[in-house]
Amino acid sequence: MFCPKCGTTLPDGSQFCPACGAQLGAQAPQQAAPQQAPAGTNAAGAFRMPNAVSFTGLFFALLCFIFGFLPLIHVKGYGGWGLFEGNPFDLNVLAGFAKIFMIIQIILFVIYLVSQFVDFNKFLNLPFNVTEKMPIIYFSCYAAALLFSFIGGLIGGYGMHYPPAVCWYFAVVFCICGFIVILKPDLVKNIFANLVKKQ
């Protein structure tokens, strides 16, 4: 070992430097302490860029958001109610739950989006990895909303003819694509790899 003050070569385990008199035993804990602190209190490395699979999942999540929410801002054909107005429970319970799920989805979409760029586990002591779990939570909740809206529409009719509007079908397709991306990431990686090879 070497004296950190004067650089003199010393036997391992020395407590004092015979050359300059520096105390060595008290310095070792002081040097170790700053290295242990960042693990729980430092946000270093919390911000990152998503990989290709995460970006693909976000792309389909955005499409689901657009086709799932924008048509529901105000839809006169749905008995005069939209996402933020009216009471779909007047039609039936499933239609009401569909609206509740859709409102929850707005919050989940924001958390999903941020979690792909920020590692929440660096700030919070959570029992699960938010980055890994949020995609499946988002698309599962979205699928439930689509199912409730479909069955509720069949029962209540929403004051219009069925089948559902075209946006609903697009939302289903994008939701399925989102599930494929998060459940089969290797498939997505292979597709990107093949595209790169062709170029």
Care to describe what's here?
With 199 residues, the chain is an all-alpha fold. The chain folds into 2 domains: 1-36, no CATH class; 52-198, no CATH class. 57% of the residues lie in helices and 0% in strands. The chain is built from 7 helices and no strands. The protein has helices spanning 27-36, 38-41, 52-69, 93-115, 130-156, 166-183, 185-198. Helix 3 (52-69) packs antiparallel against helix 4 (93-115) and helix 5 runs antiparallel to helix 6. The chain is elongated, with a radius of gyration of 28 Å. The protein starts with 26 loop residues before the first helix and ends with a helix. The model is unreliable at 27-42 and 75-80 (pLDDT under 50).
Total DSSP helices: 7
Structural Rg: 28 Å
Mean pLDDT: 74
Q: What is the strand content?
A: under 5%
User: Which class best fits the helix and strand makeup?
Assistant: mainly alpha
SSE order = HHHHHHH
Main pleated sheet: none
How many strand elements? 0
Coarse morphology? elongated
Distance between the termini: 54 Å
Catalogue the unreliable spans. 27-42, 75-80
Whole-number count of domains: 2
Helix content: 55-70%
